Amino acid sequence: MRYVVATDTVETSELVADYLAGRLDPDDEVYAVNSQFGGDETSSDELREGEAALAEFEAAVDGEATVETHQFVRGNRPEEDVLQYADEVDADELVFSVRDRSPAGKAIFGSVSQRLLLQSDRPMRVVPREE
After folding, report:
1. Per the structure, how many domains does the chain have?
2. Cβ-proximal residues to 6 (8 Å cutoff; 6+ apart), any chain
3. pTM (2 decimals)?
4. What is the CATH classification number for the domain harbouring 31?
5. Which among 61, 62, 72, 101 would be 20 to 30 A from 107, CA to CA?
């Protein structure tokens, strides 16, 4: 299997790694992706948090499968980077986490997870996270 994992925080990486624990085979390929818009829209703290999220994921699944991590800062929205990369590696499955948000919160603020769900035709595993 070839997985693309979208992560934005250490907490998300831990949740997704816990979900994948015991499901991965040594022959599986896992690509963990963190996407930041860049420029004035991304702070150095956000970049460091993305790097920490990727390092956490890689450490958590070390030895269970082949893992590559990628932090994209290309001026794209996160879901664009994730979906484009899933196409590039021909992922069998997308794995990401969602926050429990009110319908009004989703409408006002949008959601990367929501856009991934709506824009991809790939199989997905969505791991809930509590607020």
Report:
1. 1
2. 33, 34, 35, 78, 82, 94, 95, 96, 112, 116
3. 0.87
4. 3.40.50.620
5. 72
